[in-house]
Every structure is written in structure tokens, then in C-alpha cells.
Write a sequence for this structure.
């Protein structure tokens, strides 16, 4: 069918489909592809009359995209719209023009509003068009959504990767199911783990931008900036549930403990120097430690060096004690004995 409508508020998937359509319809046009593609922004009904009966030049198809059109969305009472001004004669003319589109000319209407089939203009277009709708999926933080979860797995596959269920839940919660952002994060993670192909929760918590606030929170904590710690907790809680923040803290603490244990083991093997009564403990050069930690943990050396610099005043025993404390507080949250915000405040205060 030469008349197509792509409509819906899930604009990421909508414009992805539009891109594929244009590539498919113009693949045989050769050197005429650019000539045979016309994009009209915010079209009026008159633009349809001007171009609907045009034909392609040379080989292949003619593709006319009526982008960002408001033909199929109901307007508020005080808001004027082109479709409300279309009279009976224009509707009749539109009906005739859409029914006369040449087989190798394609009209593609693009609307980032959901398709309202009760409007007069919608009814006319619907008679002649193939309609594909892209409604935004409803998602509630910390809930299951099999459709979106399947979408994430397919998205990872498109980047030659697979992805953990926990990583999917993290991305859906952290972005509030923003598919464009999730796609960007999955692509970033898939590139980061090469030559590996499986994306884990650790990877996405490390790379995803909505967790930059976690980095700030932890840095303030390590630097003893208590007022900023409190402000960061409030900021994070405005974006996601406290239990998700606690899960991310576990990830960071576990990774940091592993790093510090390797570092401490390496430094323990370095001999001291000077007289016995005044011996000075030597440490391995940072680059050697980073190289060793990177090898044993399969981590990124740049990120490992940044983490070890942050942790220069910490030791593995102290962080293990903090991790144990976090586990205790998390358990109290899960059984309803403690609010997640209070658990976070107690963790950073102790």
C-alpha cells in the first residue's frame, strides 16, 4: 500500500521504523535516491495535494515523508489545528487524491501523537493507508514488564551481545523505560565488554549515566563531606527506589574490596627498608597494582586506577565491615522494619 501512517508517542521506535522504510523503498533508486526522497516538516493538507500525485524520476520509488504532522491527534478546545479547518470539499478531494497515488510513489505520514481514528481526517486517511502505531509502553519502577524485557534482549542481540535480567531491570528502572536511552546504554556496554559478549549488572551500573549521582555520593562519603552526602541521597531517592541504590552500593563495595585485597596482598610482599627500629613500609607502584588488578578482575584499567585513587585512605577490612552493615540494613528494609531512606542514612552515618 503506497500510503503509510506511523503514529505514536514512542518516537524512538517510530523513527527507527521510518529509517528502515526509507532505506528499503529507495534501495533500487541508485543515483536517483536523494532526488526521489522529499521530507516535508509540519505539513498542511495543501502539501498533500501538491505532492500526492507526483512520480519518481529514473529508477525505483518516490518517497514523500510528511513529518511531524498533527493530522491524527485531537487538539484542546482553545488550540487551532489544520485538520479542524478542513472542510467537506477538501476532505472529498483528499479522499480522491489518496486513492489515486501511483504504485511506486509512497506517502509516509509521521506523527508523534497516538492515532485518533475518530477524527474526520483520520477516517479519510485510514481508508487508504496502512497504519502502524507506536504507543509508549506503560512502565512502573520496580515492576515486571515482559514486553519491555524482551525488547531489551533483542536490542542487546542487535549489538551482538546478551544481557542479564538484573541489568535489564536496572536499565528500565533507571531510565523509566526510555527506550532511546536504554539502547544507547546497551550499545555502550556491548562496546565496553568486547571481546566478551555478555552484559552484566556490574557493567551497566558502571557505565550508565543515571548512576553518576552514585559516584558523587560515594566520593562525598569517602571525603567525609556529610552535608553533600545527605543532599546526594535526596537526589538519588527522587530518581529511583532506595532498594535499587542499596543494590548498586553492594556492587561498588564488592568490587572495591576485591581491588583493595589484591593491592594489600601485593604491598605485603614488598620488603621494608631502613633500620629495624625505623623501617619504612614500601608500596608497589600504582601502575603495577593497576595492571595486576586489571588482570585478575578482568576490569578496565582506567576505571581501576580512578577507583584505587578514590580508595587511597581505605582498606579492605573497613569496607568489608561496611558491606556487612549494608547487608543488615537491607534485610531490615526487606522485612519492613526500616524505610529505605533511613537505611541509607544509617549506612553513611555509621
Amino acid at each position: 500500500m503506497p500510503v503509510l501512517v506511523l503514529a505514536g508517542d514512542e518516537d524512538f521506535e517510530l523513527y527507527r521504523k521510518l529509517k528502515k522504510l526509507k532505506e528499503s523503498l529507495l534501495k533500487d533508486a541508485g543515483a536517483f535516491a536523494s532526488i526521489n526522497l522529499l521530507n516535508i516538516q509540519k505539513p498542511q493538507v495543501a502539501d498533500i495535494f501538491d505532492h500526492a500525485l507526483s512520480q519518481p524520476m529514473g529508477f525505483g520509488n518516490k518517497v514523500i515523508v510528511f513529518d511531524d504532522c498533527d493530522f491524527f491527534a485531537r487538539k484542546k478546545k482553545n488550540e487551532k489545528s489544520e485538520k479542524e479547518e478542513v472542510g467537506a470539499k477538501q476532505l472529498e478531494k483528499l479522499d480522491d487524491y489518496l486513492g489515486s497515488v501511483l504504485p511506486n510513489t509512497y506517502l509516509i505520514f509521521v506523527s508523534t501523537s497516538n492515532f485518533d481514528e475518530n477524527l474526520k481526517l483520520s477516517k479519510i486517511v485510514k481508508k487508504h493507508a496502512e497504519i502502524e502505531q507506536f504507543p509508549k509502553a506503560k512502565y512502573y519502577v520496580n515492576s515486571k514488564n515482559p514486553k519491555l524485557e524482551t525488547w531489551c534482549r533483542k536490542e542487546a542481540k542487535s549489538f551482538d551481545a546478551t544481557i542479564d535480567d538484573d541489568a535489564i531491570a536496572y536499565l528500565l528502572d533507571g531510565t523509566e523505560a526510555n527506550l532511546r536511552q536504554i539502547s544507547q546504554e546497551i550499545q555502550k556496554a556491548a562496546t565496553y565488554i568486547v571481546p566478551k559478549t555478555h552484559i552484566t549488572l556490574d557493567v551497566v551500573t558502571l557505565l550508565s549515566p543515571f548512576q553518576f549521582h552514585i559516584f558523587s555520593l560515594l566520593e562525598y562519603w569517602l571525603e567525609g563531606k556529610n552535608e553533600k552526602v545527605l543532599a546526594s541521597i535526596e537526589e538519588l531517592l527522587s530518581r529511583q527506589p532506595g532498594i535499587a541504590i542499596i543494590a548498586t552500593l553492594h556492587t561498588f563495595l564488592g568490587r572495591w574490596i576485591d581491588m583493595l585485597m589484591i593491592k594489600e596482598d601485593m604491598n605485603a610482599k614488598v620488603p621494608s627498608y631502613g633500620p629495624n627500629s625505623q623501617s619504612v613500609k614500601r608500596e608497589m607502584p600504582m601502575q603495577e597494582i593497576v595492571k595486576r588488578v586489571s588482570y585478575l578482575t578482568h576490569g578496565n584499567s582506567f576505571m581501576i586506577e580512578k577507583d584505587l585513587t578514590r580508595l587511597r585512605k581505605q582498606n579492605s577490612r573497613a569496607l568489608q565491615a561496611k558491606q556487612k552493615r549494608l547487608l543488615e540494613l537491607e534485610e531490615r528494609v526487606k522485612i519492613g522494619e526500616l524505610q529505605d531512606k533511613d537505611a541509607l542514612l544509617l549506612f553513611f552515618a555509621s
